[in-house]
Write a structure and sequence with these properties.
The chain is α/β, with parallel strands linked by helices and 241 residues long. The protein has 2 domains: 167 residues, P-loop containing nucleotide triphosphate hydrolases (Rossmann fold, 3-Layer(aba) Sandwich), CATH 3.40.50.300; 65 residues, no CATH class. Helix content is 32%, strand content 27%. α4 crosses α5 and α5 packs parallel to α6. Bound molecules: adenosine-5'-diphosphate and magnesium ion (MG). Adenosine-5'-diphosphate binds next to β2 and α1. Magnesium ion binds next to α1.
């Protein structure tokens, strides 16, 4: 197995005359937690959308776990999308559904090899919302709604979690708690995480910081200071979560 969970090569995306991703190249190690930073409009969301195949690239390639995502079509592409968890700044919960049903929603139409309700309960428990399964989004605080959204992102057992400014709508204390939760989930489940943020106190706690400007990668800093990364994959295998 190669160390790179995600490999991006010469990735380009244009919106009319704007180049939102400009020949981006990047390798991300399995089980690592990378902050994607840069000012508004620098291409953070575009990178995450391209990696999650929410948008299609104009050029270059994205490879996830040895599968070239940019070459996938139709059925294979929708299968790939289901293996990636996505967390948004504004939670995007369905307002008429309970917390539990929101968590189940992504896998509802599909045959999966697990009990959907049981797993959704377990995930709500893992994000600190045991007992709130029947609450509607409007009955939950912003931080709690983001916890539901994180549980929902995990229902398909993603190896890759993409979080686009997940703390951007929260105050600093709630934002810190959400980051703590994501770091803990990464450690327990061995996921690879890409988190877009323009908040320095959030980025500083990640393993690695990449900075974008005008769709280009202008800085790439290892924040682990030479410490060997913890064996998150080995632990996740033991826990089988
Ligand atoms: P960030 O997330 O860093 O704020 P984005 O990836 O959202 O940056 O945007 C990068 C650039 O692409 C910006 O100039 C933005 O206006 C443009 N852009 C993003 N999405 C679209 C779109 N759907 N249509 C037109 N322009 C877009
Ligand atoms: Mg954005």
């Amino acid at each position: 197995m190669s160390g790179a969970a995600l490999s991006v090569d010469g990735l380009t995306k244009r919106f009319q005359d704007i180049v939102a991703a400009d020949e981006l190249s990047l390798e991300v190690a399995a089980g690592s937690f990378t902050a994607v930073t840069g000012p508004s409009g620098s291409g953070k969301s575009t990178l995450l959308h391209l990696v999650g195949a929410i948008e299609s690239a104009d050029g270059g390639s994205i490879t996830v776990d040895s599968v070239e995502v940019t070459a996938l079509r139709r059925k294979k592409l929708s299968e790939y999308r289901r293996t990636v968890g996505f967390v948004f700044q504004r939670y995007h919960l369905l307002p008429a559904l309970t917390a539990l049903d929101n968590v189940i929603a992504p896998v509802l139409p599909f045959k999966v090899g697990f009990d959907k309700r049981a797993r959704a309960r377990e995930l709500l428990d893992a994000v600190g919302l045991a007992g709130r399964e029947r609450a509607l989004p409007a009955q939950l605080s912003g931080g709690q709604q983001q916890r539901v959204a994180i549980a929902r992102a995990l229902i398909g057992r993603p190896k890759l979690l993409l979080a686009d400014e997940p703390t951007g709508n929260l105050d600093s204390a709630n934002g810190t708690q959400i980051l703590d939760l994501l770091l803990e989930l990464r450690d327990e489940r061995g996921m690879t995480v890409l988190l877009a943020t323009h908040e320095q106190h959030i980025a500083a706690r990640c393993d690695r910081l990449i900075r974008l400007a005008d769709g280009r990668l202008i800085e790439d800093i290892d924040l682990t200071e030479g410490e060997p990364p913890e064996s998150t994959l080995a632990r996740a295998t033991q826990l089988r979560l």
